[in-house]
Design a protein that fits this description.
The chain is an alpha+beta fold. The chain is 58% helix and 12% strand.
Length: 377
């Protein structure tokens, strides 16, 4: 186990010394810690209206404590939390909206981040030490109106009996995840608000989307996905100079981010600044580029313009780079649907669902096509 994971694993809990020579165990109040950081970033007045995604109200714990006890081995407690979520609560998958822990518990519905919010709240309550993990090889994005919205894929991580384990909507099913990036609670909250902002924008509520994404960036100024989406919103509202500044600030943090590079290039092309766009496009189209999502994105753009031949070439390139990504198989499915090859479309949809049965887009297409295998816990 790496020192980094070990440090993260124990961070939510600690000892508080009371009086000379006397120590009493008290859990670290991670909710209060996030609220303090909200206030430091945004001011007390604004912070008072924000949600801590993994907070549960005191009245919720009376019911929870009848079924969860902070006893037994770490593995037993972790299993009890999972069983409570899918058994007692009966949580079912629902792609939108993204919910905090209490809303997820009451609605008994939620997406992947909703599950993680509830899992983290309950696991910490029974003296476990879960943390949020961004799965870097399962990035989520949406192509809308020529621009790319960014959303990350987040799971729960925890060191249990000395081994690192991850928990998501299908906790007992083997995963194809490879890239793990543990993130702190504030960055997880930024993911939460960024998700809500992306959902609002896809529903056409630009002003609410702006407020939510600005909140995400306000509490985590280096959160690149939020910076990308803020740039998209500024472009939608006609503030091209503001969008350019935001995109550049994001690229200063992650110079190879596909969404930022693409969106900034589109901005330059919109303004007729071909010379400024060219190095960005060259960077994106470099033959050494191994990021499959760039090719999926290009395929989506070609498909939107009606060029199915180009779309298929881009998707095949994406598949060559990563055959285990559900987004790649979804891209191929869309192309084959567009050209009327239902057999191949169903094949790639089935592959996407086997790789990630909770993928909201795959489930939507599965329902449309009457495809089996779309069920999730």
């Amino acid at each position: 186990m790496s020192k980094r994971f070990a440090a993260l694993a124990v961070a939510p809990w600690g000892l508080l010394l009371l009086g000379a020579g006397c120590a009493t165990y008290r859990p670290f109040d991670s909710v209060a810690d996030v609220r303090e950081k909200y206030a430091a970033s945004l001011g007390a007045a604004r912070a008072a209206h924000l949600v801590v995604p993994f907070e549960l109200p005191p009245e919720a714990f009376a019911e929870i404590d009848r079924h969860l006890k902070p006893a037994g081995s770490e593995e037993r407690r972790a299993d009890d939390v999972v069983d409570y979520i899918f058994g007692r609560v009966g949580l079912k998958y629902e792609q939108i909206p993204t919910r905090d822990a209490e809303s997820t518990r009451l609605a008994r519905r939620g997406n992947c981040l909703s599950f993680v919010n509830l899992f983290v709240a309950l696991a910490r309550h029974v003296r476990l030490s879960p943390f949020y993990v961004e799965v870097t090889d399962y990035q989520r994005w949406t192509y809308r109106g020529g621009l790319v919205l960014s959303q990350g894929h987040v799971v729960a991580g925890m060191v249990v009996e000395g081994s690192l384990k991850t928990y998501d909507f299908l906790p007992y099913r083997p995963k194809g995840y490879r890239g793990f990036k543990p993130i702190d609670d504030v960055t997880a909250a930024a993911h939460f608000y960024n998700n809500l902002g992306a959902e609002a924008l896809m529903e056409g509520d630009v002003e609410r989307a702006r407020q939510l994404v600005e909140t995400a960036v306000g509490i985590a100024p280096g959160f690149v996905k939020g910076l990308n989406n803020l740039g998209v919103l500024r472009m939608r509202q006609g503030d091209l100079a503001g969008a350019e500044a935001v995109y550049k600030s994001g690229l200063a943090i992650e110079p190879d981010d596909v969404a930022l590079l693409d969106n900034l290039a589109q901005l330059y092309l919109h303004e007729g600044r071909t010379a400024d766009a060219k190095p960005l496009i060259d960077q994106l189209t470099n033959a050494k580029n191994s990021n499959p999502f760039f090719f999926v994105l290009r395929g989506e753009q070609a498909l939107a313009s009606g060029d199915t031949d180009a779309a298929l070439k881009f998707m095949v390139e994406a598949l060559r780079r990563d055959s285990e990504s559900p987004e790649v198989h979804l891209g191929l499915m869309k192309v084959y649907l567009a050209v009327g090859d239902l057999a191949k479309a169903r094949h790639h949809l089935e592959r996407a669902l086997r790789l990630d049965a909770t993928n909201q887009e795959a489930r939507r297409y599965a329902e449309m096509l009457g495809q089996r295998g779309s069920g999730a816990q």
